[in-house]
Structures are given as C-alpha cells and as structure tokens.
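Section 4.2 – Deliverable D4.2 (structural model, holo form)

The reporting period included a commitment to supply a predicted holo structure for the target in complex with zinc ion. Inputs used:
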Amino acid sequence: MPLFVPQAAHAQNDIDPAMASQRQSLRVLLGHGDAAAVSADRFTFDGRLYRGTFQRQDDGTILNVVDLEQYLYSVVSAEMPPSWPPAALQVQAICARTYVLQRSDPRRTYDLVPSELDQVYGGVSGETAGAIAGVDATGGAVLSFARGFASIAYSSCCGGHTESSTDAWGNVALPYLGGVPCPWCVDSPNYRWQRSLAFDMLTARLTRALPPAARVQDLRIDARDASGRARAVDVVTDLGDATVAGSLFRRSVGARAVPSLLIGSVARAPDAASALIDGNGLGHGVGLCQWGARGMALAGRAAAEILSFYFPGTDIQHLT
Ligand SMILES: [Zn+2]
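Output (structure tokens):
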C-alpha cells in the first residue's frame, strides 16, 4: 500500500518562484544516528543509502545536503505507486517540488524533516523508476499563483468532490482551493466504502467530546458543507446529545474507521450496538485528488491540464 500523506495547505507566501533555482540544495534533518560516506555523493544513515552529502551538527544530529531534484526522487516514490501513468507521476512531482520550496525556511539550520510533517523521504532505497521519470520530465516546474507558490494540498481520493481548504481547516479562502466536482476517482478502492462503528468504540474514542460517563447510542450528521462533507456530527448518548465538529470526529475515531467526512447515510445497526455508515473517498479531499489525477492521466490528459483542473487559476512556472 503506497503512503498517501495528506498535507496541510499553507498560507500563500511572497516568495517569487522566478527567484528560486531548481539547482539548489536542501538540508534535510535526518536526526541522530550513524552516518558514513559511501562515495562523493552517497552515504548511509542508519543502514539506508542516501543521495548527497551529510553534515554532523553540534548537537550530534545528521543533516543531509541533497539536490532538490534528487530529493524529489524519493519523495514522489513514497507518495504515488510507480505503475501509475506518467502524467499522474508528473503532477505529483510538480506538487511535491512546489510544496518543498514553500516549506524551506532559510532562517532554520535545516529546510525539512523526512517525515509526514513535511514529506516522507527515505533516501535511495525507496526510489522507483516511475517517480524518477516524473521528476525528470518536469524538472524545475512549480505551481504558482499571483507571483507566489500555490499552496499545495492533496489526498488519496476525494470521493466525487474535492473539499475547500476553508471548510476543512478554517484557512483564508484561496480561489484555487475552493473545491471542484471530480468524476475521475471512481476506480479508487475507497471511492465508496461502508463501515460499522461499534458504540463502545465510539464511547471510548470520543470520551473527551462527550459529557462525563456518557455512552454513545446513535449518530446523526448535523450539518454538511458545500462539498457534502459532514461539518458536524450529532452524537446521541444516554446523557443527552453532543455536537462534535466533523474534523474532530474523524481525528478522534480514526481515519481507518472514518476514511473521509463525505459520509452518506448513517443508520443504527439491528443489534443496536453500532452505527452503519457509508461514504466516499479517503483523506481530507483538499486540492489534488490523487486517484483523480490517475483517472485523468489514463484518459489522456496532460499534467498541466490535471493541475489546472484541481487548482483552477494557477499556472505552471519553471525555476531558473
Ligand atoms: Zn476525486
């Protein structure tokens, strides 16, 4: 199962993509561990092979200094299956490149961490030929909006309508992250799903959102946003109802039990011990729908068309 890392959208920044270079190096903070050079541009860290060079900092942590494009080889490999069509991998590469440059902060001693806090980066061992081809085919291309980098967000499958960043996270509205109908992700195994949520499990996981000692007896969708996602869930308990924000509900109950907030029907099971829910999609749904990018690519759409579909009004710029 590939890793699909939902990324938070960041506020529009003022860095002009025309001032950024695709030949710049990134400083990735790998942490504490054993590092040893293998060649002039390869080293191992805790048994894994990495591109670039390493520096040991005063606090003993290891920094990996690596070319932007070579960093992307690993990141794109972790985020999309290599068997997906080239245009989809190119889209992922442009998104990852834009995201990285937006996150890099020259005021810190490092630019990025290798986990899902930024993007998952595991060095050479996880690299795939498909991802490398996607990065090379789009060398230096980034997504821009109004003289800045576009804010990048993506998730696995939107389930039929992408989500607005404002509804998902309360961010300032960005015109290209308002949400669009998406007919392209129906092949995802998570396009439609059903789950049974035991009331005992819900009682345990939602305990902090409920009156003390309350026991869950039923669920209802309280309100929906423009995309159809649950803005709030009414949790019926033996001590009265509690209204729980959709995002808190999914975070508390877990993404495995509630793949997305695009929940359709909610019904009490015949045993009265659980709720049966069905819904669409996997992830927060903001920005790029990865399965949608795959669907559009299979239909012959180019990377630029896919990006302008999911981020309407943005442009592709090329770094110097
Ligand atoms: Zn979709």
